[in-house]
Amino acid sequence: MKLSKFKYNLEQEKIALHPADNRDESKLMVLNRATRTIEHRLFKDLLDYFDDKDVMVFNDTKVFPARLYGNKEKTGAEIEVFLLRELNREQRLWDVLVDPARKIRIGNKLYFGDDDLLVAEVIDNTTSRGRTLRFLFDGPYDEFKQTLYSLGETPLPKFINRPVQPEDKDRYQTIFAKHEGAVAAPTAGLHFSRELLKRLEIRGVDFSYVTLHVGLGNFRSVDVEDLTKHKMDSEQIWIKNEACEMVNNAKQEKRNVCAVGTTVMRTLESSVSTQGFLKPFEGWTNKFIFPPYEFSVANSMITNFHLPYSTLLMMVAAFGGYDFVMEAYDVATKNDYRFGTYGDAMLII
């Protein structure tokens, strides 16, 4: 499978810059693989496709305010720092990306906030853009974290080309977000409102939770035509015993298991027994799914409409069938569906 197969024409104005007024009122395109039919619904109509004892698997990661703006010592040059992950709590070490990177060297100090509220020192180069920063902060850890996050901004992806607004703090987070560590939201989960979850629960649908701390690798461009040569960034995942039991019971009873989003699908497919059952796991995954691929766990999935050439689109095409998914994307572009993080949703059954 080649990179060029995942090109389609997406006009800039079709990328959603704002979320729908209500979480569960985005459009929902339903792809039925058995009948090869496409339906146009609203997201809250999801209820019509699930029954008692079906299982929905959610990613309960929580996004933190990862984007900081500061200044370089001496020159005062403006710098953007994107926090990727905490490396060492005691030493206040963080793995970050800096932009522009070319002028930031080991030993440089960076200043953040009014009156230089927070100072960081560059102590290592990890990649061309990546750096390790040590934040110089004398107070207790909780105070440091509070200061750091008060300076941070909701890390909307760059293709949402507008300033961050107060609504983003709430809307770029699922309502079931629990375990902090993501720098991007698991977007399929953003469509679920409390009301919709309650109605699904009343219907008898079971909810299972896994954790994948979404990294920037989701937005990293693929720069090789031969997809077998692309390497995914590693992301941290947790699959607990309870999740495995719920999913595996549903599989044994021939119930629906729905992966809510590509991050859930990647997590599930990263820890599968030889019999095709989910196994508990805590660690890292760099699994890259593209067509053709044999899925083991989920038999339905919810996902957003992804950008051309993205690894997310590749996974969806592997699950829904390449020709069918690309046909659906063509239908979406002609029917005013909204694309990207804040866009509309697709259910593949």
Automatic annotation (TrEMBL):
This is S-adenosylmethionine:tRNA ribosyltransferase-isomerase. Its main location: cytoplasm. Belongs to the QueA family. Monomer. It is an enzyme of class 2 (transferase). Pathway: tRNA modification; tRNA-queuosine biosynthesis. SUPFAM superfamilies: QueA-like. HAMAP family: QueA. The gene is queA.
